[in-house]
Amino acid sequence: MPYDLAKETGTWTSGKSSDNWGECLQKLGVPADMIEQVKNEKYVVEVTVSGDSVTYKMTEFGETSVNTFTLGVEGDEKDSMGTRKVTHTLEGDLLVSNYPNFDGKGMKMRTVRRWIDDNTIHAEFTIGDNLSGWVDNVRV
Q1: Cα(62)–Cα(121) distance, rounded to whole angstroms?
Q2: Fewer CB within 10 A of the terminal residue: the chain, N end or C end?
Q3: Nearest to residue 28, comparing CAs of 110, 90, 113, 89?
């Protein structure tokens, strides 16, 4: 069954994460003294979908960032850690995000999202060549 992008419309927050999520955050550039705070942050993401265009409005640590992307088109993504290039595509029952240079030093990151149920999206991350982790996002 194909990934139902329109079903993402709504408000989401962080749920469970992999045991190594702190290590993942560190590799993504989160300073060591902020990892526990980031792990415990209940960010809020408001998602709107119009055709093959999606807007994510994310609020974390009192700051809001808004990113809109079109499937298959490389674009800029901004958040509290900076701006990076990303391309989002649908691959069967997955929404895939490829970051060719996540950290500005050539480190690749790939995120694969799939539906667990109507209120849970499981996001798996591959960071660099050998680190993987996951986060579940739950509908508010």
Answers
A1: 24
A2: N
A3: 110
Cβ distance 77 to 86 under 8 Å? yes
| Full pLDDT tens readout for the chain, 140 residues | 899 999 999 999 999 999 999 999 999 999 999 999 999 888 999 999 999 999 999 998 888 999 999 999 999 999 888 899 999 999 999 999 999 999 999 999 999 999 999 999 999 999 999 999 999 999 99
Place of tokens 């290039």: 85
Phi and psi based region of residue 106 (left: phi greater than 0; alpha: psi -120 to 50; beta: remaining): left
CA separation for the pair 47, 8 (Å, rounded): 6
Dihedral (C-alpha) 110, 43, 53, 135: value to the nearest 10 degrees?
A: 30
- CATH topology for 5-139 is Lipocalin (2.40.128)
